[in-house]
Design a protein that fits this description.
The protein has 466 residues and is an alpha+beta fold. Helices cover 30% and strands 23% of the residues. It contains 14 helices and 18 strands. It has helices at 3-11, 26-31, 51-63, 116-125, 141-147, 154-157, 185-194, 227-241, 271-276, 296-306, 333-345, 394-410, 428-436, 440-450; strands at 18-19, 44-46, 68-71, 89-92, 99-102, 107-110, 129-130, 164-170, 176-180, 200-207, 209-210, 215-223, 250-257, 260-268, 288-294, 317-326, 352-359, 378-388. It has a seven-stranded antiparallel sheet. Strands 5-6-10-8-9 form a five-stranded antiparallel sheet. A four-stranded mixed sheet has the order 1-2-4-3. A hairpin with a 5-residue loop joins strand 8 (164-170) and strand 9. Helix 1 (3-11) packs antiparallel against helix 3, helix 8 (227-241) crosses helix 11 (333-345) and helix 11 (333-345) packs antiparallel against helix 12. It is globular. InterPro entries: BBE, FAD-bd_PCMH, FAD-bd_PCMH-like_sf, FAD-bd_PCMH_sub2, FAD-linked_Oxidoreductase, Oxid_FAD_bind_N, Oxy_OxRdtase_FAD_BS.
Length: 466
């Protein structure tokens, strides 16, 4: 039986279940790559309805020696949800949206097909509950909660994956298993941080929190000034978020873009509690400030709006780089001046560019055990994001590399980043170290046990130990 016939048999005659390169509008309607600068053509796209369908798809791929990658929201910077390179079976999880809430334990169980915005609504409607995650509502929870899931709530509650207590997962032999801290704990360790290399989650079980009653949202807009002025703003902001004792209820972004900069602050508490922390006096001033008092869902919508994330689901051609910073890696005055002078003068090759610095730390340091997310000592991350129309130009590539080089020169020990901010220019070995650091040897041993033939693979996935 061919791969085509095998996957059709899994679908059992269901329409809109599986497609192949000769299917009309295959790339537009089925593959839907996120980064148009990295063309990828999967051997097939299947949209399972349940874990049994996922199991069948994996068994078909194994039989025909074809790699497998799952796609949830599809926001991979290198299109790893489509396989990352031609010829994979892409398992699109969009139909897996079961949801239940245990009102005794307040643990929620749900499928990986949810987008974050949808999941928030379900959690809200089932007891006013919440979990930490990123700010983009169109991101899929399947990849987000197996790679990290960083956002404004992370300093208070940890990352999205820190909420995961158990998963139902299809492994490389096509079997459907449970994994948790006590059952298949090694597999669980790999799934929580490097999930794309170890299996496909078909259900998450997570602990939840009561929604915060009030949220203070602060947005400070700065019209574009001189490089020196922007450097001073960054210096003050970094001093604020670089404090390892910063109140965990507060998080912040600094967003540099063509027309100026935005500084956002999110505080989970009342306005009086916010003022009592002393943080308002430390946020850089001189621009136009907008302070809002919002409820939980309102704050999530506000965060997405301020960061322009209503456009984040659009497919574009873009280039991006990123680094993570521990306390000792924060930039010195001379490096800050040089960086903002470069950003001011460099040819970006595009009018659509953003450089984002975000606060980390706080509760992220509390969840080091039992998972493979390594950046627990980091206080800050940055990422550049430049869109090219119609494609990414040489000038754009040079610009993002220039920003990266200047920061790395100033902070030579900042040599890792979050695996959600993929750098497709890295080879496999370098990428593994860049994303997972000290956990790589253990991850390779776990890979050798659970997926020795690398059924689940992309250009930067974990390789099995020899």
């Amino acid at each position: 039986m061919s791969l085509v016939d095998c996957l059709k048999a899994v679908c059992d005659g269901r329409s809109s279940c599986v497609a192949f390169p000769n299917t009309p509008l295959y790339n537009l309607r089925w593959v839907r790559p996120y980064n148009l600068d990295i063309p990828v053509v999967p051997a097939a796209v299947i949209r399972p309805d349940n874990a049994q369908d996922v199991s069948g798809a994996v068994k078909c791929a194994v039989k025909h020696d074809v790699p497998v990658q799952a796609k949830s929201g599809g926001h991979s910077y290198a299109n790893f949800g489509t396989g990352g390179e031609d010829g994979a079976v892409m398992v699109d999880l969009q139909n897996l949206k079961n949801f239940s809430m245990n009102e005794d334990t307040w643990e929620a169980s749900f499928g990986p097909g949810f987008r974050l915005g949808e999941l928030d609504e379900y959690l809200h409607d089932n007891g006013g509950r919440a979990i930490a995650h990123g700010t983009c509502p169109s991101v899929g929870v399947g990849g987000h909660a197996t790679i990290g899931g960083l956002g404004p709530m992370s300093r208070m509650w940890g990352s999205a994956l820190d909420h995961v207590e158990e998963v139902e997962v299809v492994t490389a032999d096509g079997e459907i298993r449970r994994a948790s801290y006590t059952e298949n704990a090694d597999l669980f360790f790999g799934m929580k941080g490097a999930g794309a290399s170890f299996g496909i989650v078909t259900e998450f079980k997570v602990h939840t929190h009561p929604e915060p009653g009030e949220v203070v949202e602060y947005t400070y807009s700065i019209s574009f000034g001189s490089a020196e002025e922007m450097a001073d703003v960054y210096r003050d902001w970094q001093a604020l978020i670089g404090d390892p004792e910063l109140d965990r209820r507060f998080s912040s972004l600094l967003i540099a873009q063509p027309l100026g900069a935005l500084i956002t602050g999110t505080f989970y508490g009342t306005e009086e509690e916010y003022k009592a922390t002393g943080i308002p006096d430390k946020i850089p001033g001189g621009g136009v400030a907008d302070v809002k008092l919002l409820g939980w869902l309102g704050s999530l919508a506000h965060q997405a709006e301020v960061a322009g994330l209503h456009l984040a689901s659009l497919s574009t051609a873009f280039a991006s780089r990123s680094l993570a910073f521990a306390e000792g890696d924060l930039l010195g005055d001379e490096a800050i001046d040089e960086l903002f002078a470069y950003i001011d003068k460099a040819d970006k090759g595009s009018l659509i560019w953003t450089i984002i610095w975000n606060s980390e730390g706080g509760a992220m340091a509390d969840f080091a055990a039992g998972n493979s997310y390594p950046h627990r000592d980091k206080l800050m991350m940055y990422q550049s994001y430049v869109v090219g129309i119609p494609g990414v130009s040489d000038a754009t590539r040079k610009f993002v590399e220039g920003v990266q080089e200047r920061i790395r020169d100033a902070a030579p020990n900042a040599n890792t980043t979050y695996a959600g901010y993929i750098d497709p220019t890295l080879d496999r070995a370098a990428a593994n170290q860049f994303y997972w650091g000290e956990h790589v040897p253990r991850l390779r041993e776990i890979k050798a046990k659970w997926d020795p033939n690398s059924v689940f693979r992309n250009p930067q996935s974990i390789e099995p130990a020899e």
